[in-house]
Amino acid sequence: MSTKLDDLLSDESVFFTGGVSSIISNLGKAVAAIALSVACLVTFTDVAIRGSFSDSYFSTLAVMIVSAYVIYFSLLDVGEKKGEESEEYKAAKARYMGTRVKISGEMIPELRLFCEDYSRRELESRKRNLLICYGLSPEDLPSIARPRSLREAWIFMRVKRMRIFPLTARTLLSFDRKETSRELYDPEHGKFLRSFIKLLPSVVCMCVTVSVVLSVKDGMSAADVINGILKLCALPIIGIRGYIAGIVFSSKAKPTWLETKARILESFFKTRENGLGTPS
Questions:
Q1: pLDDT number for residue 147
Q2: How far apart are CA 104 and CA 124, in angstroms?
Q3: With a cut of 70, which residues of the chain have pLDDT below it?
Q4: How buried is residue 275: exposed, middle or buried, by Cβ count under 10 Å (0-12/13-18/19+)?
Q5: How far is 168 from 118, CA to CA, in rounded Å?
Q6: Is the model's pTM score more than 0.70?
Q7: CA 241, CA 28: separation in Å to the nearest integer?
Q8: What letter does residue 208 receive in the DSSP assignment?
Q9: What is the per-residue pLDDT across 11-67, written as a single tens digit (0 to 9) for each?
Q10: Is the dihedral of CA 269, 271, 276, 280 positive or negative?
């Protein structure tokens, strides 16, 4: 039988009907409730900060840090899976997949040229927008290349530091694979190293948990119980934040990126249908 918390987390009306703003609002209420509980505990107890760092302090701190990371990233992954059930993600995915499937093998060379030209024009657009923000125009760029003031030198340095976004055919056609700077990429290459890196957090967690020695405290008082609750109060907040971060990422950030790639591919199709080749 599911608990009330499980029912709350699986209720679509709570997480998606009201949108992400309602999720954040509920998160704020949960954090406020936990903070109020902590304040109540502190009010009826004597509070003191340890002046020395004992072995017990460092061992407890290590366990708490490892637990916080494990809880956060575990619930982050759960939240991302939950966010993929949102209507925003489903609509963006359907649009992108429907557009991507129209790309045939013979279109790839044209798509590469289109991506290169698109990247150049996107960089030029960002440079123009930056200059306009400072009351300048693209025609002023050669003059501020020989700055007469600190302001012009600063603006020119900002323009000069702008880099082109490496948009490739692989970027547009890859859905859930990790992107690389190359189109020809064998996933077997470096698989062992990637697996080793992914395993590192679990290995660190295991090292800490194996080295922990537990013993039952004799004569535990109410103060000991309150101290334990106070130490653990941060973990639910971290877990909730990880879960919500995963939902927001999958229901907002990922759909936006999928829609952007779909629009670029649609622009490629229009350019190709008009017989213009790559846009100038």
A1: 84
A2: 30
A3: 1-57, 176-192, 194-199, 201-220, 223-224, 276-280
A4: exposed
A5: 10
A6: no
A7: 10
A8: H
A9: 444 444 455 555 555 655 665 666 666 666 555 555 555 555 566 667 777 777 777
A10: negative
C-alpha distances in Å from residue 155, one per residue of 24, 53, 144, 147, 169:
38, 49, 8, 9, 33
Contact assessment for residue 50 and residue 260, using Cβ atoms and an 8 Å cutoff: no
Q: Among all chains, which residue has been given the structure tokens 């062992």?
A: 192
The pLDDT assigned to 279 comes to 46
Distance CA 272, CA 93 (A): 23
Q: Cα separation of 144 and 132, whole Å?
A: 14
Place of tokens 């760029």: 141
128's tokens = 């123009």
Burial of 32-50, coded b for 16+ CB within 10 Å and e otherwise, reads eebeeeeeebeeeeeeeee
- Which tokens belong to 183? 């189109």
